[in-house]
Protein 1
Amino acid sequence: MIKAEGIHFKYEVQVILDDISVQFEKGYLYGILGPNGCGKTTFLKILSGLLRADHGHVVLDNLDINKLSISEIAKKVAVVPDATTPIFDFSVEEIVTMGRYIYVGRLTRENAEEKKIVREILRQFNLVELKDRSFNALSAGERQKVIIARAIAQQSKILLLDEPTSHLDINYQVELMEMLKKYVKNGLIVVAILHDLNLAGQYCNNVLLIRNGKIQAFGTPEMSLTRENIKLVYNVDVVVRKNPFTNSIYVTPISPRVIEANEGVSNNLIKRIHVVAGGGTSKELLPELRGNDVSVGIVNTLDDDYEFALELKYEIIAETPFSPISEKSQNELMQKLNQTDIVILVNVPFGKGNLENLKILENCIKPLIILEKTPIETRDFTEGMASEIYNRIKSKTNVKVVKSVPEIMNLIDGRSSV
Amino acid sequence: MNALKQVFQRILIFFLILALILSIFVGILIGSVSIEPQKIWGILLHEMGFPIQETWMEGERLIIISLRAPRALAAAIVGAMLGIAGVAAQGLFRNPIAEPYIIGISSAAGFGTALIVGFGLLFLGIFTIPIISFTFALIAVIIVYGLSQTRFRLSLSALLLSGIALSFFFSAATSFILYLSEDQTHNILSYLMGSFWGVSWIEVYIMFCVLIPSTIALFYYARDLNLIVFGDETAQTTGVKVEQSKKIILFIMTILASTSVAFCGSIGFVGLIIPHTMRLIVGSDHRKLIPIAAIGGGILLVWADVISRSLISPLEIPVGIFIALLGGPFFVYLVVKRKKGGNFV
């Protein structure tokens, strides 16, 4: 267990860390995230005893780190720094052996037991074949593995890493994180500074988000890496979603252009428009509607249309994927239809999952534009039920059927009446 | 380290030791007065106490025992000292072009020597020059060290920069003395260039007594040096008491370099070339590099001395000049090799 209690750190007059208190437990992988200069590297250096906090303590197994000697700390905490470029060349095996520094006497050579430990670590890191190769001749990914292997050779309980995956190809990123995960399962505490929000979201048990030297959030990735927190810490707009396969979150930035386009449009032309979409069929239309008060739904959260709408910052009536539309969403849609000026139904394929949309539309009395690119029969997966309702809707008087997006835009702009 | 490579290395190291012993013998063999090898063997064995019939003249014995033997041994010892000090300097400063004189040792010692010789102040007899140059070297290191030690740590870059600044200062001061003392210029220069001319047994003993404990002490910190190459922070988090180790390594380097400068003048390039060349053979692990650099440095200087005194015999080229002439092109070779994609050993 390693604990930071009220850590303050100042560099000259600039406050780097301001009252950081956090506890890292056995068997967890922690990610430290934050923009450059937020103090995360300084924090890691304080945790490893390289820097002394101005106030506050780092507690290692109930002992104050400042009361421990360098070799006592090294037995408890191993560190992988952010960049390692030795000016002279060592072999892979020599470097991993260096991790045993504290265990080997000064004038003795490594005994059989020591050699066995090093060999085992080389094996765990798939470095056996590279053991005689010179470090400087390795690829960046292999080098990083060697450096982590040296830290593991220290056999400490805590491993601190400073951006271990930066400059690495994705295959090495995944390999390293999987490896760390394995050691975490065996009881190691791993604390890694990461710059990749998605890697953190996928692999970390807990994420510590630092902003201007203060803790912004500390908890599971879902709790820490929220849209609001990321906006506060990094000052970017993002979409945070859940990967349905791994159940981990992932973060996509939204380009600032999109946001600007949404702002700065005068209010008197704004119309309230609701789009019934699904299956990515609204991708042409949605950007055209920018500047209006647009809502979209009901779509499920894995739908492309959901993502488009989210990116455009439209309001969304959303439903979890692979489940029927809930009553709550149905009510929301009905309410929306009452408030809106214009309703648009795009060329949506219908299945049992989204049939409710049509049923509700049948009772809609607002001007309704139907974008029909392909006949309903070709996109009806409900054995005719959808077609039946669809055709009933088409025959209503408040409905206009069009074939293209420009036609819709003409109608909305009032150049022809709905 | 695979088995074959290990065997190869062991054989190589064995041959290097053999080569050092042979080199010293050759150093004793060659000189302006020619003496047969059997006589030399006889004299050497006789001196060691073996009952061998005297077939040589007393003059020959004196040449061998009082002139050539201490000279060859001094060359070997100074070579070893500079080789080891070079290894320490390059590891400590994490810099492939660092060498033991880099923090001002040789120029300060040179200034001390110039002062003494230039103004004829030999107040301590034959030991005036060694004592004064050693003192000046230490003063230089203390100044440089004082400038580089902050509250928490010894700044290596400050050490390098202030060392270079101090070197320029002392070099300029030495030039000024040379300029002032026209009649002594040649005399001063021959001291400054570095040579083993007229080395006595007592000097050999003193240097030997510095070399052996220094080597053992540095070897004691070999694994610290390995980790220091990776940076202070890596070294500390792996368990090295970095600040303490750095100071001790710096101290050992200073003692080795200052002693060699004190007795034999400033012999450059050995501390630069030997670590590089030996790294080619045994790799960068300081536990191997330190002993092998001692042997390599010894061989290099013994031969350099032999060649420099027999090339245009009876005239002697100061060995410092000879080594520099040799070292310049060699260093260019290393740079070119690096440019071609090889590692900088």
Protein 2
Amino acid sequence: MNMNKRFRQLKSSWLPAMLLCLCTQWLQAQQRIFVETESFAQKGGWVIDQQSFPVIGSSYLMAHGMGRPVKDAVTTVNFPEKGTYRVWVRTKDWAPFPKGPGKFRLLVNDAPVKTVFGESGDDKWKWYDGGEITLPAGPAKIALHDLTGFNGRCDALMFTTGKFTPPDDIATLGALRRELLHLTAAPKEAGHFDLVVVGGGIAGTCAAISASRMGLKVALIQDRPVLGGNNSSEIRVHLKGDIDKNYYPKLGRIVREMDNGDPGNGNPDAQEYGDARKIEIVKAEKNLTLFLNTYVFKAEKEKDRIVAVTGRDIATNQETRFTGTYFSDCTGDGTLGYLAGAAFRMGRESKAETGESLAAEKPDSFTLGTSNLWASLPTDSITTFPATPWALQFSDEYHIDASKADWEWETGFGNFNTITQAEQIRDHNLRAIYGNWSYLKNSKPEKYGKQQLAWVAYIGGKRESRRIIGDHILTQMDIQEGKMYPDGAVTATWTIDLHFPDPVNKKYFEGQEFFAGTKHIRVAPYTIPYRCLYSKNISNLFMAGRNISTTHVAFGSTRVMRTCGMMGEVVGFAAYVANKYHGSPRSVYADHLPELMDLLKN
Amino acid sequence: MKYIVACLLIWCCQVTSGMTPVEDTNAVRDVLDNRALLPVAASYKTYRVSDTATYELQLALDQDNRPLYYCRHIFTPVCYTGECKPVYINLYWDLLGNYIRYDLPAKEVLTKLDHREFKQEDYEKLQEILARPNSLLADLAITDLIVPGTENLTDSVDAHTGATLKTIKNEVISGAVYTCYTLWHMAHGPVTDEIIRITETYINPALLHRFLRSGNYAYQYKALERVMDKSGKITPGFEDDIRALINGKNIFIARHTLQQVHPGFITGVKAQEWLWNTYSRSSYPLQLTVLHKLATVPLSDAMAKHLATAGAAANEEQFRLIIAALQATPRLPVAVMQQLAGQLKSADEGKAAAIHNLLLQRQPVNNTIKTMIYEYEQTLPSTEK
């Protein structure tokens, strides 16, 4: 029973008022120290993971060492008074099959508390009792000490006195976080922008640059420390879709600037993806302000308009509010549209609904999967890799005989929700990668003995989630018939590329597939209408990227990053036109289309 | 016509020069240094294959005349406009027609269109290509793949296959596309059916035992088809082989065998003693298969006790299956029910509720058990009692 509940019961009892008063004073004397691990002063080898923010309301630290224990994450916590504190650790066993490998210890002033965390066999995020410690008043050194390098994770710590059990319920815990982290005060104001772009993947970055070069004051908000999204060194997917077949050749120029050459998928050299160069390009724009490491979790509206969004720093938890005239949802997940109540669709439509020959017979929640790419490199001497009984198991009959990943390493074909189960999808990918690698290292030493994992993505490369509905929904027929609408803007060239579980992988891992197949349906270059790039019911919301207004089938072609980048460029031009006439994205189509198209042409 | 003439020419060359038999290891060029993939043969038996009269198929036998593998000495023309070149190569298959490896007759090399010899990486890539039974090459006509008279991939090759150009390039060797195509179709063509047909004539209990104990999953699946009937019943005499498969390293065939085997195979005290030992040393996925299977048979007292004990440390999925197996068994010993009742106090909320539910269904008359159930129920909120 938590303290608030206990307190409420006392209040409703017939106890004299004086006793209640004494109780209240006793409660106030209790200590509750809340420490977010992502705010640790030194992260050591631990990494910040914000991918589960929509589910658990926080980022967390993870020991992503590819099987080699990572350096301690260390911080200092100030204890206001001497006393005996109960230690609480919010964590989970991420691979309880039956017990996971993510073991770690908590060190207080270099001494471990009694419990080893991360091996409970329970994959739900929970508070675990770490026992009691006695500390003097003043600063204490707190460290997370990884034991395996296999993705142990810790969301937060609490040090409490008195009888108190921290709540596991997300809403109650959220309120407690806010209270104890002092997040109840007004967020920092970032100012007013003509265009607020949420999401710094290729689409969002191109949108922000395009608008800023048209003279708009732009904020670009990205929830990671790097730009480029799936094309960043955190995910390492190469850019696809042509920019040399454009109906309007002016489009694609910013995409070309973002393009760092083609290192393929999952190249072991992070430099190949040009993170720093992308940031430099953005920072060189005088009208553009970049906000990295900021996860947007809240939207404020007036009628059908978004007036402001609030983001939280994924490390410090500082909240920042951005007001704007126009907003662009380039999050991929359609996060902003979702927060603002934009109409959206997730999963597959039926043939009956869309008339598409490639549509499903019945509507369902099937989405393309998420990739966690990986690569190994040769070493001079033989290296070892441990057995991974908690991972997927392989044998000579079936394993993936490869020293690096390509796009086929993919999980989440409708059996996981790509937003609410993003953590499970990533973890399933890790179980496939580590299980297969363990098999290769230990059963094929002649081929893999002198090969070592060099990089495994811990940020998932997501392909599909929400699609926000616009004034036009692009279909397979639009693509295959090459319909040229008056507002046809972005030229797309990629095949209709809808992945499905590889049949052999499905045979061995039914319901747990992690390897994909595809059938490329070739298309002639076609144009995506501008009306797919703004929300039909949020009057100042643009979209660019995979979350634009298409059917699932059409999305199979529009989703590649060069094409998404050009959508961003169009959004930048359209925001300029809208701003010039104080109109809406829709009014650009209805009243000023010739001007927009003229911008694309000239 | 040109093809026939080329074949004849090559055949004449063979006859006049006298082909060195492949079984003489000194006479082959082991370009991949992988001859160890083949067991040592004592003799060879020759079969004429119906797909073409030119070639013979040889079955390698050990000293007891038991079949080991098949091989074939290929000499085929690869023709372009105005020019044919002979390709000499030896292909090897296992007893079920699965391609194993290749080597070359002594002094022979493989060349590309421009007569440059294969480099070592080309030889290795050819092995990778030939070893891929699901190659894109399977469904392609040669005219879909290359421009006639050249080694260049056609412009529309990706349209024919639905694959990207990168994937297709991975399936062939640049400058030797036709060679790859021709050899892949020889390695995976009608000869494989012929091999299976010949091997069938050798199948007897001894060979089936050998297959099951071979560690070669293709042989094991083949033998399983013969020793396990549709209901999962095992031919007498093969029980130890089946148990060895389930206890073996290959999780997939272990799981398949356990799923398919008749419940009778795991019924009884002794069988379940073996199965519990298997469970204890199995990987997690096989443990789940064991637990699923146990729900189909009456549990021995010992097995019920093992499961009741294991439940305490099991994860959610294991525990769910353990309870399902205990629920499905017709009789639960009092000692097991008492053991379960003892866990009501210490188990987490979900597990305790499941145990409670199980015990209520069994309506135990033992007073100790009834007391433990009662005490547990007193800890529940009033609506859940």
Protein 3
Amino acid sequence: MQRASFSASATRTATPTSIPGFEKHRKSAVKANLKFYLVGAVVAIAAVVIAVTAMQGSSVFYYTVGEFQDKQATLNIGEPMRVSGTVLTGSIKKDEVSRAITFTAIDKLDKTKSLTVTYSGILPDTFKDDADVVVTGTYGQGVFQAKEMLAKCPSKYTSGK
Amino acid sequence: MSQIGYVALLLGFAVAVYGVVALTLAAWKGYAELARSGRVAAWSTFGLTSLGSFALIYSLVTDDFSLKYVTQTSAKAMDWFYKAGAMWGGQEGSLLLWAWLLSGFMAILLLQTRRIQPKEFTPWILAIMLSGTAFFLALCSIVTNVFEKLDQPAQDGSGLNPQLQNPGMLFHPPLLYAGYVSTVVAFGFGFAALVTGRLDNSWIRLSRRWILTSWIFLTIGNFLGGQWAYVELGWGGYWAWDPVENAALMPWLITTALLHSIMIQQRRGMFKIWNLSLAVVAYALALFGTFLTRSGVLSSVHAFGESTLGPYFMVWIGIVLVASFGLIFMRMPELRPENKMDGLLSRETSFLFNNILFFLSVLFILWGTLSPLISQITTGMKSEVTMDYFVRTVIPVLLAILFLMGIGPLIAWRRASFESLSRSFWTPSSFALGTAVILLLLGIREFMAVLAWSLSVFTASTVGLDYWRGIRTRRRHTEGKIIPAVKQMVSRSRSRYGGLLVHLGMVVIAIVIIGSSVYKSTIVTINNQKIDTKNMLVLVKPGESLTIEGFHKYKLTLTKVETKGSPLKMSFISTFAMEKDGKPQSPITVASELFTSNQMPNTVVYIGVDPAEDFYISMLQQGLQVQRDAQSQPIPDANGMPIITEAAFQVFVNPLMVWSWVGLVITIVGLMISIWPDPKEALRPLPAWERAGAKEKEVARV
């Protein structure tokens, strides 16, 4: 069998099927490599199983406030999900006793769509009027109870074009 | 100055395009004149890009607020070095930084290619780097303009982001970018090999030190990113599996796989397709990482908002992938391995397994990071993954890699016998087992911690034993003296002993990560109540005390909260008296600030560093209670400032954090040993299979 040449002008190699005895060689090559294929298959299956089970246990649906309002009827109460929106200016209210805050999140594009959110955890420093927020939690009885809150200043680094 | 800069960038782009065409034609048709002209074009591009970059930095440092970019990213009040650093504070400047770094590395290659063999690679590697430079120059001067002028020059900039006024922020982006950019070299040499058909180990030999360079920059870049998050952001953590963080981690993982995999091609002429593919994927992921940060395609705390650059990146990455894998496919017959796999237990298979594990980790991360897009396309509904996904998929793979790091060097080439492996396996395993026992005796019950720490000790002891055996053998030649033995041993086999030291550094960092993940203390006791500071506010009134326990016991008493106003910012400063294990310490202060110009908040964190743990406390903006009169009006103090009656804090104890720096230093030292030029390298005999087939061919000098 022709060995791969190192010179830069090498352009031709013998095609596999033109070599006598190739079929027999290929069959024994597969047999010799069987253990590698088996181990490979095990690894591949394990990887898929790990990824799929991890994904199932940790996916959350992600909606904008507008999408959430549209789909509201079809969603399960109590299912964890993420909603992104903007804090309606002036809507942040702090409960003096429980330290929980309530605010209205509005959809970025359609300002008429809104959602009431309560959150009793730690607020990021960036949480303020007009900030972009992503809240993770559950919806029930007209209020979205957020367990996690991510807030970003209104975009600073837009390319402008 | 900015006019000069703008013209320089446009000219640089034009010259670069010319250079790419000239070099490609020269390589294809052998025109020596064009090749020389192409080199001149490459040098000119470097010069022009540098000029453009200097112009930008000059504009920033001299407060040229007629430029939109300067106004967005800088402000009069910033220190000059932060103003210079504002070059990478925004999108357009970061693109220019990419172009500058790329042209800079290309300049180094222009110098290197005067002497390297094989000469036919030169025009291709230069053309690839020049085309990358052209791409980024186009993005920051034509598609967007870093030197765009405002209609009316502004009085001051609004770029003072207090969270970026931190030394870490000065070094993290350029170092990470240097890592991203340098992946182009291995890609370029691999591509050159594919195009010219010279598919022996030449491209590996030429790329090896560049791969190591890109690896160390990526390592330090990622490390500093985590460190910055830890000290600046106030949540006491350093990694959130954020899309942009993942985008920086993936090239690192692939580059780590690549730098191991090339050893197999050098020794045994195998893994040729793996190595070419890994080099291509590393570069593609580096581009992808830059794309993710710029396109607004995924939401992230880092994301720079919506931008129009997404499609350009997608096309560029698409071209890179299609051209490269197309060539690999066409060259398949010439990429057959020189040797085949002998035993299922061998150095070769462990490296194969290594490649697979790193590749899997990248697949898992990519899958999770892109899940919003994938789910949107496949189901019409967008869904994201939480941090949990990454912990459940990537951590097991990393633990497997940790184990492989230990036994890899112990497994013989070609076919290892179980007996020989068990002999070298025995001592490190006993250390690991001993560690597990000690940890359990110390009361540590978390399975993950015991397993991961025992694995770490296993791997660390294989490194120690390897060094020990080597020194012992060498001492016979140095009359029993240890230092000369170490020096001789290391210089005879730099890449082995350097690499082992890098493994040790990584193990130390792994130990820290395990400890801080499992044993972070977040339970604070105040007024006889236990509060978990991770999700609840710890509210403290002046005079009250809180305690938290880690390895040490900390007691903090809030002595006062002051309000200070200045034109720059409004600060709320809390001072605590601190006791550590009952012993009084100097008072500590933390602050929460609000910058007046752009209403940006900032947290001034206190971190008490100790070999055992970091004591971490930060003040939150929320929870500030102000003293009010009967009509709920704030009562001012003597300076007219509100009187704070209660404030909220986050308090953590993070074990072992300071040791991560030790791990980083060990890693850097090991890498330097590995990368150090070895005068004897050229004299080392080639492996038998390479000697038999090697033929040098003379090509027109370029």
